[in-house]
Amino acid sequence: MPSQPTLSQSTEMPLSRQEWELLVRLPRRVLVAATSAERDSGKHTVAEGLAGIESIAAGRVSGSRFVRQVVAAIYAEEDAADDEPPAAEVFRDPAAGIAAVLEEARAAARVLNDRMPLTDVQAYGHWLLSIATSVCEAARSGGFLGLGGVLITPAEQRFLDDLREALRARG
Q1: Inside any domain, residue 44
Q2: How many domains does the chain have?
Q3: Average pLDDT over residues 51-79
């Protein structure tokens, strides 16, 4: 269970446990959604997953204390879990999984817009988009023997655009 920040650590308005868990869970869900946006080989999926993990970890040095707290909660949760190595994940039903993540992103945006300073709202959204972008850019698609192909496929670009729009959701 992710540890919840105290009132003095994060905001003037406390987040409920459910809201906090959504915000802590969402970066990993965005990673899986971005990995699922384009059907790839196992090798590409692993490369995408690793890029996403690195982008999540990059939040440790965010200028936003709130983003750093979310990253700390993610790692605290992982430390408490079994010592299984990370696996490359994709949704079994990509369309449904991606739609669910986009709805979670809308819900998170509404919570953040209602409860957090604008700088933290923007930092969190930028961080989620950087996670998704790094995943989508991790492996070229459609090339031959590593040559050619596209960095971001139309399906991946659609997911990035949809995520950007979802993060703009207001009350």
Answers
A1: yes
A2: 1
A3: 92
